[in-house]
Design a protein that fits this description.
Order of helices and strands: HHH
Number of helices: 3
Largest sheet: none
Distance between the termini: 21 Å
Low-confidence stretches: none
Shape: globular
Strand content: under 5%
Length: about 100
């Protein structure tokens, strides 16, 4: 069980956490609008997630030859989190049976 993070454990970050979770939720809604409900096997979710992590890695790698774009880097991280959430949703509510 993952314990809830309280403001006491993250002084001053409550609003930032809320904003981040809101943006992940918005990205999930956008993904569903774009592709519909996605039910994949764990292997397919892994492939999708690794592709998204690859985009994060690309942003980091490119920062060595150009100015680091924190906005794009952050957006890629939000997409990684949203894909991970979609995989959890698929596992919990989808058609995949182990």
């Amino acid at each position: 069980m993952i314990a809830a993070t309280s403001e006491a454990h993250t002084p001053g970050r409550g609003a930032a956490i809320a904003l981040t979770l809101q943006q992940i939720h918005q990205e999930r809604n956008e993904q569903t609008r774009k592709w519909g409900v996605q039910d994949h096997s764990p292997e397919m979710w892994l492939a999708i997630l690794v592709e998204e992590v690859g985009e994060v890695a690309k942003e980091i790698a490119e920062s060595h030859v150009k100015l680091f774009n924190t906005k794009r880097y952050r957006q890629e991280l939000i997409q990684v989190a949203a894909v991970a959430a979609a995989a959890v949703e698929s596992l919990d509510y989808g058609t995949f049976q182990s």
